[in-house]
Write a sequence for this structure.
């Protein structure tokens, strides 16, 4: 990755390139792990934008290059871009801008009001660890610590949906002789094996809940509207230093972890309750391509 970034040169190298090259390389290096595009494509688009900005008299500053109006003018001026290529360039620049704003100021990406197939971003391993420590530190009652652990284990550990999380009871959890913990998902014949990080807490929670609900066992309604979001907002109100806890992101975390570990996609889709592996496509944005060495090893049949 670093070799591609440092060694990149635009075709028909323009005279402005030496003036903006270091800035382009800096942006690419800082954001390449945060955007789902290969380094050569990233460098191609960023170098084109930077050279255009330099010619247009824009300040020699990556955030100035990535200002929405500059990106728009660049795309309009790039006569060689047609159809889907324009959308690809625009998507790359927007994702890079979001990643850079996050790094510089901690500014969250803007919400996209569209019917796109994008999914909630997965949590990072450090964020999951902090959630786990937070949940275990809550008062050990069903409404607080118990429900927090249940939500994390069923979301990040089993990839269950909102309706499934609300429906799961302690009696739906089984500990196998191998010590693996499995969930018989209510409403069907699907069985999900819990991720190792969460299986101890899930088994302990199920043992306490017995035939009651794992999450919010005292509730009077089987599927309370906004029940999960209302609970997380109340419970995390005084919790500083933690990101917003969302079930959609917990499920994304579960799916992306499995994809990154190269679990067969038909296995993931079945466990997630999807009708086909096509539904996994939006999650692949967070999965880095295999290295050439790993690809060779897999194709040769080595584990």
């Amino acid at each position: 990755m670093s070799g591609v970034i440092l060694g990149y040169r635009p075709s028909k190298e323009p005279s402005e390139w030496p003036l903006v090259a270091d800035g382009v390389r800096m942006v690419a290096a800082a954001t390449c792990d945060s955007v789902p595009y290969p380094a050569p494509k990233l460098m191609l688009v960023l170098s084109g934008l930077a050279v255009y900005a330099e010619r247009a008299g824009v300040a020699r500053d990556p955030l100035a290059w990535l200002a929405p109006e500059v990106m728009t003018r660049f795309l309009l001026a790039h006569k060689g871009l047609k159809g889907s290529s324009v959308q690809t360039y625009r998507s790359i620049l927007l994702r890079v801008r979001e990643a850079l704003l996050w790094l510089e100021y901690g500014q969250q990406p803007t919400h996209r009001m569209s019917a796109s197939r994008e999914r909630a971003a997965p949590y990072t391993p450090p964020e999951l660890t902090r959630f786990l420590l937070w949940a275990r530190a809550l008062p050990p009652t069903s409404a607080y610590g118990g429900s927090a652990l249940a939500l994390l284990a069923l979301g990040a550990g089993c990839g269950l949906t909102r309706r499934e999380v609300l429906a799961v009871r302690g009696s739906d959890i089984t500990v196998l002789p191998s010590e693996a913990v499995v969930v018989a998902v209510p409403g069907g014949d699907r069985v999900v094996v819990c991720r190792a990080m969460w299986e101890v807490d899930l088994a302990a929670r199920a043992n306490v809940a017995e035939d009651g609900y794992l999450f919010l066992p005292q509730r009077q309604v089987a599927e309370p509207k906004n029940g999960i979001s209302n609970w997380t907002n109340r419970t995390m109100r005084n919790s500083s230093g933690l990101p917003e806890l969302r079930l959609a992101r917990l499920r994304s975390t579960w799916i992306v972890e499995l994809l990154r570990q190269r679990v067969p996609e038909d296995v993931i889709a079945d466990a997630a309750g999807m009708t086909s592996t096509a539904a996994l496509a939006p999650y692949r944005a967070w999965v880095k391509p295999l290295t050439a060495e790993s690809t060779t090893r897999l194709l040769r049949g080595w584990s």
